[in-house]
Specification:
The protein is built from 19 helices and 2 strands. With 463 residues, it is mainly alpha-helical.
């Protein structure tokens, strides 16, 4: 966004005759272009999306065993700090700056948010707010990957992986889909309202790549690895669902009818996703579970993310139902194909993201998109082909680059935690803390003693 000139500011606000400084003039001029309702809604939506990452931490934390709870929480929370620094330094400029390479990447002219101040406007909202809103998407996308490698990744390696991954995977894909001149959104014309490609498919494909680099957990397919705290899982899922309204409806960039439609579609798809998962689970296992309810709701929300601004309410109901049913089956593929996706990032986010993005090619309606229609509404095969091509390109890119980055980091510093650390639990060995006090340190250890334990003591802490 070009800066507002002083002359333009003076013309826009002739009533301001004795402004104390040029900065005040710029703010007044910007105020004539900013819609306060849109800005208020996007402020709330940004806070909602940021809340999703702590919600994800609880969701993932409840799904692991007691010995890795804090490590799982930390992987999400530290992603907030790491991605924020990268995004403000150069990520935003590369993703949303003017295209510099045939639709592949933006430039660095806004690195450090240079030239973007309170007077800068993106559409009807401040550019600073738009940049912050997009930042929250990048944060949760990186955090999502941690679920695929739970229980066995070095925390130090994660600290290096996250900023590098954000730069080489998330930022380019965000530019392809949403950036000025991006080849998927601008040239190809594929639709993605709120992040099926940059968020769901990149995180799922990247999670698959990393879990292949790391290999399976100790005891995979042999030991029971049940969630240790299902109430925590349900709480995390509830916070995710709550935040998802900001994620999807906020992507309308204003307090509009489209935001209301995306809001309702989000609610509807989450509900049918939950029901679809429980139906398959009951038919297959004979028991509808709380973990299934939480996972089904998330699967429906994942799938409606790209489509909530393109399909009608009926389409959203179908998208959610399809995702809940298919993802309930997909999470078992890891046992057949022998990849250890610890917390089903591949089965829910990759598969759900593909479903939601592809089904736009079937269910898109002109009343929602303002143009392109899906196959079932007379749009022909072209829209479906565009969606399939976008899915294949983003999935292949995210998987290939993440696999290469993972292999590089594994060679340089090692990605896999030591076997003894993994056996004991990363909470104690990495963070010197435990989520639950089982009294292990109380046996023969004086108050205030070092948390470092002998091998024999460590064995007692295994969850």
């Amino acid at each position: 966004m070009e800066p507002v000139t002083l002359a333009a500011a003076a013309q826009a606000v002739p009533a301001v005759r004795a402004a104390p400084c040029a900065h005040a003039l710029q703010l007044a001029a910007a105020g004539s272009r900013i819609d306060t309702g849109d800005t208020a809604w996007l402020l709330a939506a940004t806070a909602l999306v940021l809340l999703m990452t702590p919600g994800l931490a609880l969701f993932y934390g409840g799904m692991v065993r007691t010995k890795s709870v804090l490590n799982m929480l930390m992987m999400s929370f530290v992603s907030i700090a790491l991605v924020t620094v990268v995004w403000l330094a150069c990520g935003y400029s590369l993703a949303f700056g003017d295209d510099t390479a045939a639709g592949l990447i933006g430039g660095l002219h806004q690195a450090g948010l240079a030239g973007i101040g309170p007077a800068s406007v993106h559409g009807t909202v401040p550019t600073l707010l738009f940049a912050t809103f997009q930042l929250t998407f990048a944060i949760i996308t990186a955090a999502l990957i941690s679920g695929a490698i739970a229980d066995r990744a070095k925390f130090g390696a994660w600290l290096v992986f996250v900023p590098l991954w954000a730069l080489v995977v998330y930022v380019p894909v965000a530019h392809w889909v949403w950036g000025p001149g991006g080849w998927i959104g601008h040239d190809l014309g594929a639709l993605d309202f709120a992040g099926g490609l940059p968020v769901e498919i990149t995180s799922g494909a990247s999670g698959l790549a990393l879990c292949l680099v790391l290999g399976p957990r100790l005891g995979f397919k042999k030991d029971a690895m049940r969630p240790h705290n299902l109430p925590m899982v349900m709480l995390g899922a509830g916070l995710l669902w709550f935040g998802w309204f900001g994620f999807n409806a906020g992507s309308a960039m204003g307090a509009t009818g489209l935001a209301a439609a995306a809001f309702l579609n989000t609610l509807a798809a989450g509900c049918t996703g939950l029901l679809g998962w429980l139906f398959v689970e009951h038919r297959r296992d004979g028991h509808p579970t709380t973990l299934g309810a939480a996972s089904g709701a998330v699967a429906g929300l994942v799938a409606v993310t790209p489509s909530c601004g393109a399909v009608s309410l009926l389409g959203a109901l179908v998208v959610g139902l399809a995702a809940g049913a298919v993802c309930s089956v997909a999470v078992s593929w890891k046992f057949k194909l022998n990849y250890d996706d610890s917390l089903d990032v591949v089965g829910v986010h990759l598969v759900g993201g593909v479903i939601g993005t592809v089904l736009i090619g079937l269910f898109a309606e002109r009343a929602m998109t303002g143009g392109p229609e899906g196959l079932l509404y007379g749009g022909g095969l072209a829209p479906l082909g565009r969606q399939l091509l976008a899915v294949a390109a983003v999935g292949a890119y995210a998987f290939t680059v993440t696999y290469g980055l993972g292999k590089l980091l594994d060679r340089v510093m090692g990605l896999r935690a030591d076997e003894e650390h993994e056996h004991t639990g990363l909470d104690l060995t990495v963070h010197a803390e435990t989520a639950y006090d089982h009294g292990v340190l109380g046996h023969g250890a004086p108050v205030g003693a070092s948390p470092a334990l002998s091998s024999a003591q460590k064995a007692k802490t295994q969850a």
